[in-house]
Specification:
heterodimer; A: about 80 residues; mainly alpha; about 50% helix; B: about 450 residues; Amino acid/polyamine transporter I; 2 domains; two-stranded antiparallel ribbon; globular
Chain lengths: ~80, ~450
């Protein structure tokens, strides 16, 4: 099967000539993405920070509550929860 | 039409000034329509897999129980979850394509180590417990098929490990997409049950409450249906999968379509599971678990139907296991900075493959322990997933409003309106769940 080398402009020209190129993402040239290392941590307002802290507290309390209930059901504390 | 040789295979050299030309391979076609179709097919995969894998063993159990207890009355809840699950996963698509990184890495980098660690521990814990439920379902189904679980469960675990170890993302994806398409057998199962289509369609499009009213059982089941349709691991899985597949900016609309097709399939298959549960109830059987439901259905629909339902149950568990284990392995690899790609052979991504293998092996091993508290684990998983989900989506929402990160891919006002509505509803359900966990007698039992 014959192959040919083209640059991106050549591929674009093929599209202009009513021929299109299908390239699998894994076979394509790497694409420039957002440079995360240059961005650093997100700047958060005080209200967002407080909301996230509340969320953290809620999750910790809920995790403890769920485990307590599950252990109760398992009879770990010598009683079965209703 | 596809162009014949000599131009069929094309290599394109990308000549960026700072690097050597990169050769890429593509197929030349002469029709724009065919170009669109083929581009969709090469992008297709992550969206379908994340959605169909979401109908895992727990989902089979939850949906068929909903059908057995409330007939087709809860079909509207499932239909309502179609836009919910699509909008949430669509955000993940944009995030994954714009950054080329997984969700865990993103939380670490944008919210800091503490939040990153918190999210990771939550994810790994719930994922592991969910994996145990997947293998518990395999164990149950094998038992009903007359296969010794001591042989069948380790075999399933080994097969699950082998499909990821090929060092080829494409091979893994093709295998898993094939398993996803097997899930379509639920359509045959549902129609073989000869459901009353008129009432089913009415219940799907017109919300109604079962005659027993709002009870504790109904509340738990609705929360379980929501929790099983929209799960935290899905966010991590699809973003990492998109990053691993290296989807490009030009693929966004096809990745959205992939996700939408997957969402439609998963919701209609969920409806089919409810119809199967309803059929067993209509024949006078009480629901205990989906494997027993298959046996019950076999008494009036024949042994082939019984085996088919059991096989579909195993398929659901296998799909759930590979997706959930991968979400754990990708997330851990991203945070540790290890190589973490299905494209890499074992020798080049040892940590990533070892985490995957450990997840699968430990969950399979736990199920085989005699008298392991599987029912308690299943209960814990449902509750934990329901509690964790809203917070996971809040991170996603904050990231999607990060214009510095996403630019034109950030949320538009209408996206935010839809997403905050979803978050408020999910938080409401999570609080109801919290109240029920704290005070189990809050709602009437309905007995």
């Amino acid at each position: 099967m014959a192959t040919m080398l083209l640059n991106k402009v050549g591929a674009q020209q093929m599209a202009d000539e009513h021929r299109w190129v299908v390239i699998h993402p894994l076979d394509d040239a790497p694409e420039q993405k957002v440079d995360m290392s240059a961005l650093g941590p997100m700047e958060m307002t005080t209200s967002v920070r407080i909301s996230l802290l509340s969320l953290r507290a809620y999750l910790i309390v809920m995790l403890l509550l769920v485990f307590y209930r599950v252990f109760c059901q398992a009879g770990f504390f010598g009683l079965h929860a209703s | 039409m596809i162009d014949q040789a000599p131009n069929r295979i094309l290599q394109v050299a990308d000549e960026s000034p700072a690097t050597v030309p990169v050769q890429v391979q593509g197929t030349v076609v002469k029709s724009k329509w065919l170009h669109s179709l083929l581009t969709f097919l090469v992008v297709f995969g992550p969206g379908l897999i994340v959605m169909v894998a979401d109908n895992d063993a727990g989902a089979v159990s939850t949906y068929s129980q909903a059908g057995a207890q409330y007939g087709t009355h809860l079909l509207w809840v499932v239909l309502l979850l179609l836009p919910v699950t699509y909008f949430i996963q669509e955000m993940v698509v944009r995030l994954g394509i714009a950054t080329g990184q997984g969700h865990a890495a993103m939380i670490y980098q944008r919210f800091g180590k503490w939040w990153g660690l918190f999210s990771l521990v939550d994810l790994e814990l719930v994922n592991f417990l969910t994996l145990v439920t997947e293998f518990a379902a395999i164990d149950l189904a094998l038992n009903k098929m007359g296969v010794n679980p001591l042989v069948g469960v380790p075999l399933a675990a080994v097969a699950l490990i082998l499909i990821t170890l090929s060092g080829s993302y494409r091979r893994w994806e093709r295998t898993v997409v094939f398993l996803c398409l097997l899930d379509l057998a639920w359509f045959y199962i549902a129609f073989a049950m000869k459901p009353a289509l008129g009432p089913a369609l009415r219940n799907a499009f017109v919300p109604s409450i079962p005659q027993s009213g709002i009870t504790s059982d109904l509340t738990f089941l609705v929360i379980a249906v929501v929790g099983t349709t929209v799960a935290p691991w899905q966010l991590f899985f699809q973003q990492s999968c998109i990053a691993d597949k290296k989807l490009r900016f030009s693929d966004v609309r096809w990745a959205r379509l992939d996700t939408f097709v997957g969402a439609c399939i998963t919701v209609t298959v969920a409806g089919c599971m409810m119809l199967a549960g309803n059929a067993s109830h209509m024949h006078g059987f009480n629901f205990t678990d989906p494997a027993q439901m298959a046996v019950d259905i076999g008494t009036f629909a024949g042994p082939v139907m019984r085996t088919l339902i059991l096989m579909m149950m195993i398929n659901a568990a296998v799909l759930g296991t590979t997706a959930i284990s991968l979400s754990s392995a990708w997330a851990y690899g991203e945070v540790r900075g290890w190589p973490h790609s299905l494209q890499l052979p074992f020798s080049k991504a040892k940590g990533f493959y070892i985490v995957y293998t450990l997840c699968v092996a430990a969950a399979a091993g736990l199920v085989l322990i005699p008298r392991a508290p599987l029912q308690l684990i299943i209960l814990g998983v449902q509750v934990l997933a329901g509690v964790m989900l809203p917070s996971a989506i809040i991170f996603l929402q904050l990231l999607l409003n990060d214009k510095e990160l996403l630019g034109s891919y950030a949320n538009k006002p209408w996206n935010n309106f839809v997403n905050w509505t979803i978050i408020i509803v999910l938080f409401g359900l999570s609080l109801v769940l919290a109240a029920q966990v704290a005070a189990p007698n809050l709602f009437p039992t309905g007995h």
